[in-house]
Known about the structure:
Layout: H1 28-49, H2 54-70, H3 78-92, H4 99-110, H5 121-140, H6 151-162, H7 167-172, H8 175-186, H9 191-194, H10 197-211, H11 223-227, H12 233-253
Helix pairs in contact: 1-2, 1-3, 1-12, 2-3, 3-5, 6-10, 8-10, 10-12
Amino acid sequence: MEGPSSAPGPEPQWLAGRRDSGGDQESEPARDMKTHFRVCRFIMETGVKLGMRSVPVATACVLYHRFFEHVSLHAYEPYLVAMSCVYLAGKVEEQHIRTRDIINVSHRYFNSGSAPLECDKEFWDLRDSVVQCELLILRQLNFHVSFEHPHKYLLHYLLSVKSLVNRHAWSRTPIAETSWALLRDCYHGAICIRHTPQHIAIATLYLALNSYGVELPAGDKEWWQVLCEYVTKADIDAVISDLLQLYDMEAKCI
């Protein structure tokens, strides 16, 4: 972990103390999972408001999860880290977002209907903290900030499966929309860094097809083995199990 001199500056009152305290009977890992879930939801919602594409938002979530693989959740303010991840992801994916816009959208996220922040000392201190935190993230990740996402694989798999399904059955069921929604949900937790992109893409498509009872023509191999040679049913089940656990976490976060 970095020394105290590398820690970001103080965060404003509206950003501090957002961690989930949890109940007395709840374990620390469970409380941390809740916090990570909520912070990634914050990343996604602010990303939408900032007009970010899906891949930069996904990169921001992966940066966040990778960072907290290396440091304790209690060492840094998670929402400040999230803001810096959004800022850094914009650079990595060539969709640069201004720090001022990130700060104002984040402020409005916690203070609905509020006016944009004044460019006072609090604003500039927070801006400096976001930039310092960005450098901290880069050092903790050894500047490895470019990731392969499941998005391109899911797009390819959807096109392949669509050609195998009866077109009327395909048009009646939102397989594509559901698959993309499931993929997006994977980024709320560590699924996106625990499993390979191909396995995540196959598993989300598998779950979408099963949810609507859509069957593919039988062959010598299962359809997922045709699309991804090295994936196994155990790989698919592992992703789905983690995803269902995440949905259980979501129910507890409401």
